[in-house]
What we know:
By secondary structure, the chain is α/β, with parallel strands linked by helices. Helices cover 37% and strands 17% of the residues. It contains 8 helices and 10 strands. The strands form 2 sheets. Strands 1-9-10-8-5-2-3-4 form an 8-stranded mixed sheet, with helices on both faces. It has a two-stranded antiparallel sheet with strand order 6-7.
Amino acid sequence: MTDEPNQLEPMPTDWQRALAVVAHPDDLEYGGAAAIADWTDGGREVVYVLATRGEAGIDGIQPAACASLREAEQRASAAVVGVSTVEFLDHRDGVVEYGPRLRRDIAAAIRRHRPELVVTLNHRDTWGGEGGGGYWNTPDHRAVGRATLDAAGDAGNRWIFPELISEQGLEPWGGVRWVAVAGTATPTHAADAGPGFERSVASLLEHRAYIEGLTDEDPEAYARGFLTANVERTAARFGGRPAVAFEVFPR
Length: 251
């Protein structure tokens, strides 16, 4: 018997294109951006697809104004880590529903961009609490994460959503090899966060309006503290190296 935590495997590296699909602006910046910065530095292509524009995310700003503000913050944030393509599916923030429409929209994005790796966010009921408990996850995160896992298969089947072919000219793409879930309590793999860490902090800081609406803490202290705690917690399971954890589902 040992008290040593199970070690995480390194993330796969034999891929060229990734698609990251999440519910809101800032979802990728709360941990995933350090890995993404390192991937784009290595010449890989990463595209972001967001189900909503995060218009319900700041209490003091009306949704119509908030949507354009958070879209601009997300585009600036993505650019910091080398991502130039950011798309929005325009589902309504806060009430995203799991179902065929969401699966179809994500499958269409997968067919458009033809990734080998798909990244999404925790689709389970809670944050943390591997053995029970933890903080309750939001409906949007659960719906988008689950739909992304399903859409990775939908994208390769011409008889599911055949209108993607007839109406949009999107032929099936069965080339997704892995779906990697960030923010999970049951990770299997990790990516080195060291090379991209400072840019991950800068990337989260681009969401300044959101952070200022969330906390009275200094935005840089908040961002750096949160991200440092994340990568250091994973380090214990990744040879002592600060890292971003993922649960990887092979396709």
